[in-house]
């Protein structure tokens, strides 16, 4: 029998890789596509741990490449489910790059992935609820509803008028108005 609810720690995944010559572009930096592949797999394992199901990637929110990761650097990917909906889950992933000889470590990428659990016929399947346990988990959990509404609007799966959670962010009525 499947669990009815799970906690964030149940879905945690950490993967550490070294950037090798086959992973780089002609500038000897990690290829963006290679990093996205690692992120997709690590995030998918996290969603699988939460759902105990096969999962498919439904969407990836904006990934920006702030700074290059050089050949020989060590890359650590850390993923966790932030919230589960009906059949979909939001996964937060953070990438830390490390230049060990220089003793330098920095957060290089952050992204939100959405996965959908599917049954053996490829049909979306219900996932356990996620219960946040601390302030940080609660913050990601609350924000997940707004992010979901935004990505469903962008995917033309939601009418902006129905995005109540998102609209409340822009509800400035009364703020800054002169009496
Ligand atoms: C033979 C077996 C081999 C087994 C081996 C297993 C190994 C496993 C290892 C896995 C490790 C690697 C994993 C890599 C994962 C891939 O790379 S998978 C490949 C890339 N992805 C795909 O091909 C997915 C293609 N898309 C689809 O199949 C369908 O669009 C989906 C995502 C299943 C949704 O189907 P649908 O019929 O539209 O279903 P619908 O009921 O309308 O929506 C279902 C949910 O999807 C959400 N959704 C749909 N579109 C979006 C969107 N754009 N944004 C956000 N949410 C969305 C909906 O909001 C809804 O969420 P809930 O409200 O239920 O929570």
From TrEMBL:
One of its GO terms (biological process) is acyl-CoA metabolic process. The keyword Cell inner membrane does not apply. Gene3D superfamilies: Hotdog Thioesterase. Keywords: Hydrolase. The keyword Transmembrane does not apply. Residues 9-121 form the HotDog ACOT-type domain. One of its GO terms (cellular component) is cytoplasm. InterPro entries: Cytosol_ACT, HOTDOG_ACOT, HotDog_dom_sf, Thioestr_dom. One of its GO terms (molecular function) is long-chain fatty acyl-CoA hydrolase activity. Belongs to the acyl coenzyme A hydrolase family. This is Acyl-CoA thioesterase. It comes from Cyclobacterium qasimii. The lineage of its organism: Bacteria, Pseudomonadati, Bacteroidota, Cytophagia, Cytophagales.
């Amino acid at each position: 029998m499947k669990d009815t609810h799970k906690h964030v720690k149940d879905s945690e995944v950490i993967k550490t890789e070294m950037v090798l010559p086959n992973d780089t572009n002609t500038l000897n930096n990690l290829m963006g596509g290679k990093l996205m592949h690692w992120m997709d797999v690590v995030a998918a394992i996290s969603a699988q741990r939460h759902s105990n199901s096969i999962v498919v990637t439904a969407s990836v929110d904006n990934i920006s490449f702030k700074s290059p990761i050089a050949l020989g650097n060590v890359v650590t990917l850390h993923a966790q489910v932030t919230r589960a909906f009906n059949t979909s889950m939001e996964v937060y992933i953070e990438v830390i790059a490390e230049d060990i000889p220089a003793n330098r470590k920095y957060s290089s990428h952050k992204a939100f992935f959405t996965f959908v659990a599917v049954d053996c016929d490829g049909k979306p399947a219900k996932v356990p609820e996620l219960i946040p346990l601390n302030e940080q988990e609660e913050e990601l959990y609350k924000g997940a509803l707004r992010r979901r509404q935004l990505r469903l609007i962008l995917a033309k799966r939601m009418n902006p008028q129905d995005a109540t959670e998102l609209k409340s962010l822009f509800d400035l009525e009364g703020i800054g108005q002169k009496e």
